[in-house]
TrEMBL record:
Organism, as annotated: Populus alba x Populus x berolinensis
Aminoacyl-transfer RNA synthetases class-II family profile domain boundaries: 96-344
Any one Gene Ontology BP term: prolyl-tRNA aminoacylation
InterPro entries reported in the protein's UniProt record: aa-tRNA-synt_IIb (IPR002314), aa-tRNA-synth_II (IPR006195), aa-tRNA-synth_II/BPL/LPL (IPR045864), Anticodon-bd (IPR004154), Anticodon-bd_dom_sf (IPR036621), Pro-tRNA-ligase_IIa (IPR002316), Pro-tRNA-ligase_IIa_arc-type (IPR004499), Pro-tRNA_ligase_II_C (IPR016061)
Protein name (record): proline--tRNA ligase
Pfam families assigned: HGTP_anticodon (PF03129), ProRS-C_1 (PF09180), tRNA-synt_2b (PF00587)
GO CC list: aminoacyl-tRNA synthetase multienzyme complex; chloroplast stroma; mitochondrion
NCBIfam families: proS_fam_I
GO molecular function, one term: ATP binding
EC number: 6.1.1.15
Length: 546
């Protein structure tokens, strides 16, 4: 069966200079004659293959094939793309705006899934799956929804070689098809609450793309719930944004600010949208997760009703909430440095890498045996360990490679360490000699306790560092001039706000900044709107964003 897509114009796709063509390490092989890219700025490398023609002794390959990462301070976007390439997180797909998530990148997504899946089930939700293709008439039923998503829709018009009677939308989100099914499943108050989640892919025809942050297709989870009353729906929406907030702080070590979106920034079809906003290393905001109180907007559009305890027909109250692979981009841009990726231990696919070191052949067996023993000790303690025992790379090359991959801790074992029954431990978050400790005993109970304690320290250190960076780049403002000055400096502006939607649009047009949220945590005391001088009940946070 052959299907075809009739899609919106691609004129502006990949408008970013870094996304028009892959970086050097993502270049296609030369036999792909239809692709033309600039000459490489650095030599591509792989942890899995070694070119035998470069040298007779692969252990002498020290610098010639080492990766190069653009300094973060020089070009943040180029630095970001370099890390994705060099850390083997993703590659470009054959369709512009798409990406292939490589095993290491997908392993980070699996860590996110593992945590959230457990939390969803703890809070009473069940996993299921809805179809990827949605009748276009479903999208049209909720007016604000179709208006909000129309520019991003991918439409199927031909299937099986024939024109379809009704065009199909490739899932941009699932509120419409979920309501169609909820209408068939919900009849009585006894059927409520109905709380489900799905792990799926989503297609949105973005015109400006950035790997992980904004792509035509991405992976996410989307939760959907139906309730008998508005209070229960509101409680659910707030509960789920709290789940996301705890994940950000406790697992990803990202100090997000949770709050409510402005009316202009609210999800199309929702009464209220709650969000977690994260500050990236370039001080732009990243919307890292959202939870929507949908009210009865979709249930009225689809006729999703139930018989209440008094025998009267009522429309259900609903929520939807989602986190996507965008979070991986947030982790990169929050914690990474000029050496590469830096992963919080709780979501790192590899928490500890062991690098054995020997010079003479008669030292090799003893060193490898000791390294294997250490690996078994740590694995039995539930620590994710990698033993890099290949002899095709020098120890120095391995140090740089695993630092670039963001592995939180490195253990070095050489002949002297074997003799003293000890190891050398280096922390990824503390570069150079300051992060290296010698003489840690190989005795299982001592080593296990030390490694676990240091992994906890690294997790806390990354959160503390990101929190300090965030707080030092938020400016409290009391006037529009102060707001503009703060945004010009690349900072976030926090100030009282009660102005109109038109005023909010003016700020966006004149500064490029939007209201990221009205934080849940609000300062006490009387407030005066920074724009109008009228009384204000809340402060808002303004920032440029991804």
């Amino acid at each position: 069966m052959v299907s075809s897509l009739r899609l919106p114009s691609l004129t502006s796709l990949f408008s970013s200079p870094y996304l028009r063509r892959p970086p050097p390490l993502l270049r296609r092989p030369h036999h792909h004659h239809k692709l033309s890219f600039p000459p490489p700025l650095t030599t591509a490398f792989s942890s899995q293959t070694t070119s035998a023609s470069t040298t007779e002794n692969p252990k002498k390959q020290t610098n010639q094939d080492q990766k190069v990462i653009t300094p973060r301070s020089q070009d943040f976007n180029a630095w970001y793309v370099d890390i994705i390439a060099n850390a083997e997180l993703a590659d470009y797909g054959p369709v512009r705006g798409t990406m292939v998530i490589r095993p290491y990148g997908y392993a980070i997504w699996e860590a996110i899934q593992d945590y959230l899946n457990a939390k969803f089930k703890e809070t009473g939700h069940s996993n299921m799956y809805f179809p990827q293709f949605i009748p276009f008439s479903f999208i049209e039923k909720e007016a604000s929804h179709v208006e909000g998503f129309s520019p991003e829709l991918a439409l199927v018009t031909i299937g099986g070689g024939k024109e379809l009677e009704e065009k199909l939308v490739v899932r941009p989100t699932s509120e419409t098809i979920v309501n169609h099914m909820f209408t068939q499943w919900i009849h009585s108050y006894r059927d409520l609450p109905l709380m489900v989640n799905q792990w799926a892919n989503v297609t949105r025809w973005e015109m400006r793309t950035k790997p992980f942050v904004r792509t035509l297709e991405f992976l996410w989870q989307e939760g959907h719930t139906a309730h008998a009353d508005p209070e229960e729906a509101e409680k659910e929406a707030l509960q789920m944004i709290d789940v996301y907030t705890k994940f950000a702080y406790e697992q990803a070590a990202i100090p997000v600010i949770a709050g409510r979106k402005s009316k202009a920034e609210t999800f199309a079809g929702a009464d209220r949208t709650y969000t977690i906003e994260a500050m990236m290393g370039d001080r732009k905001a990243l919307q890292a997760g959202t939870s929507h109180n949908l009210g009865q907007n979709f249930s009225r559009a689809f006729g999703t009703q139930f018989m209440d305890e008094n025998g009267e027909r009522q429309h259900v109250w609903q929520t939807s909430w989602a986190v996507s692979t965008r979070f991986i981009g947030g982790i990169i841009m929050t914690h990474g440095d000029d050496s590469g990726l830096m992963l919080p231990p709780k979501i790192a696919p590899i928490q500890v890498v062991i690098v054995p070191i020997w010079k003479k052949e008669d030292e090799k067996t003893g060193v490898l045996n000791a390294a294997s023993s250490v690996k078994k000790v740590l694995q039995s303690a539930g620590i994710k360990v990698k033993l890099d025992d290949t002899d095709q790379r020098t120890p120095g090359w391995k140090f740089n490679f695993w630092e670039m991959k963001g592995v939180p801790m490195r253990i070095e074992i050489g002949p002297r360490d074997v003799s003293s029954a000890s190891v050398v431990i280096s922390r990824r978050d503390v570069p150079g000699k300051q992060g290296k400790v010698f003489g840690i005993s190989m005795e299982p109970s001592i080593l296990e306790a030390y490694v676990k304690d240091k992994l906890d320290e690294i997790q806390s250190s990354l959160l503390g560092r990101a929190t300090s960076f965030r707080d030092s780049n938020i400016v409290d403002v009391s006037s529009y001039d102060e707001l503009k000055a703060a945004i010009t400096l690349g900072k976030w502006a926090r100030g009282p706000w009660s102005a109109s939607d038109a005023d909010e649009q003016r700020v966006k047009e004149e500064t490029g900044a939007t209201i990221r949220c009205f934080p849940f945590e609000q300062p006490q005391g009387t407030k005066t709107c920074l724009m109008t001088g009228s009384p204000a009940e809340e402060v808002a946070i303004f920032a440029k964003s991804y």
